[in-house]
Give the backbone structure.
Amino acid sequence: MSEDSLMKLNRIATGLGLSVSLFSASAVWAVQLSDDNFGLDIKITAQSEDDRDLGTQDGGDVGGIGLDLRPWLYGQRGEWSAFALGQAVTASDTVETDTIESSDIESGGGSRNDGREPDDNYLALREFWVDYGGLTAYPGEHLRFGRQRVRSDEGTWWDSNIEALRWSFDTTLLRANVGVAERFSDYRTDLDELAPEDEDRQHLFGDISTQWQPGHWVGLKAHHSRDDGELANPGEEIDELSKRHTGDLTWLGINADGDFFNPRSNRPLNYWAQATWLTGEIDELQQSVVGDQRLASGSHNVDVDAWALDLGLRWNIDEQWKVGGAYARGSGGGDGDSSEQFRQTGLESNRSTFTGTSASMHRFGEAFRGELSNLQAASAFGSWQLREDYDASLVYHRFWRVDDNQEIGDSGIIAPLQDGEKDLGQEVDLVLTRYFKQGLLPASMAEHLDERSALVRLRGGVFLPGDAYGDDTDSVMHRAFVDFIWRL
């Protein structure tokens, strides 16, 4: 084994040792483990993807099958608890088995000097944390420290595994979270470097919401990020690991939620409305091209003042059928001015259960995977559910640029955009799921499974690019997955 591989394994082993030590460092973790305190999640994913570059570059295709094993360990004593979740992936190609982390990782592939190019096989630590629930007498209150999943229901603010200290309060009428987070590593053997936007960046976040009548919530969100990193000096070469901006940004949001992300809601209408304001000051990297090199040429200070809107409405026709629509808009630059261009927090996945089923979907297309930055998206959807055994969602999306001379932020498409054209394209997504209960599995398997602990799911999208991608691009792009998940 090479020296680099040994160093990566040592880093993972160190992290694993840290997480295991959470259980054994003191008598607090002297618990008697039972079958409920450890387990294994098995996921098999088959992926087919064609032309994320729309035929403008070499490669851009993925086709293969991957095995993802996630062992977990949990311990509890009194008000204290601890958890560790590992991951081992082996695949025939660079298959995406992790829906909430793949978008950040895939953007770095293909570079000649890229420490974020993923391997087909890797080991990882997804979570390791300790939790204390005794600060107050409320059963839904706890303080958690370590690498954990920070998530909001709509997925457009937060949905990421990150090192954090977070306090949560969850009761029938009031929910609140406040925390501080910073990413120090991806804890994967195949990734040597952090994404440039995560390097030296701290996050302070919080939200509060109240249920003013059954099924109706109003809430506030806030997020502040401080990036203390350094931009490249003039004349230095720029690559995918170079920071594009540093500085301070603050997001403030207000929302109203009528059980829009609750698939078990029995109300005839579910709704969602959120308005977000972004302000701050950043230094943007300026660059020039000399020959085949991209060089830094200085920086530009920008006062950011931007906004975003996200709306959704769903009609529950009966217990099986639902239809609805959604609209989102993230402000653009306006005459090429980036100060008015909205950008997301950097901790989002943009995945949620907005169609009314238990299966989460990408809010801006399973294939397109847009980011709410200089983007306008309109969606119409329908969903079907049969008891607890089957569900299906069909979604149509249409995408435009707000400013036809500005970029749109990260997306699942890496083809260049044409100035003066707003039409980004359209997409159709389909997600089908078959859930298995204990009674539907062989007796030898049933004793190891909880209800709905196994499933088979097809998720995919077909994207048809618009005029903004030019006439010389391919006319269609697809991304599709078949997942088999089994929780022991």
DSSP finds three helices and 20 strands in the chain. Residues 1-35, 107-112 have pLDDT under 50 and may be disordered.
